[in-house]
Amino acid sequence: MRLITLALAALLLLIQYPLWLGKGGWLRVADLEAQVEAAQRKNAELQSRNAKLDSEVRDLKDGTGAVEERARYELSMIKQNEIYVQILGKGQTQPQAATPSPTKP
């Protein structure tokens, strides 16, 4: 009787092994589901980034407003007959004015 119980317990363990640790086991499925969720999060982030870049490209192609804004803020360009005022915060020093290069005769 004891031998039959041990044999049935061993058989039960052999049957459970593929369920938990096999190729299609629960642990593997849980791991794959976590990977799919991480990939979906990454895709959502990339889609929002792509939408932002697409919007920016459309603005640059269609109008001059976006180009002008970039020129003003990134390159510090100003229009003709415009006055540029820079307000310095505490601890900032006044930038050196650019000196014109001498022209060759």
Gist of the model:
The protein has 105 residues and is an all-alpha fold. The protein has a domain at 24-82.
Gyration radius, in Å: 34 Å
Helical segment tally? 3
**Helix amount:** 55-70%
| Separation, N- and C-terminal Cα atoms | 115 Å
Beta content: under 5%
The residue-averaged pLDDT reads 81
Shape assignment: rod-shaped
Query: Mind describing the biggest β-sheet?
Result: none
Order of helical and strand elements: HHH
- Count the strands? 0
Uncertain runs: none
Structural class: mainly alpha
Explain what you see:
The protein has 105 residues and is mostly helical. It has a domain at 24-82. The chain is built from three helices and no strands. The chain has helices at residues 2-21, 26-62, 65-75. It is rod-shaped, with a radius of gyration of 34 Å.
Write the layout of secondary structure elements.
Layout lengths: L1 H20 L4 H37 L2 H11 L30
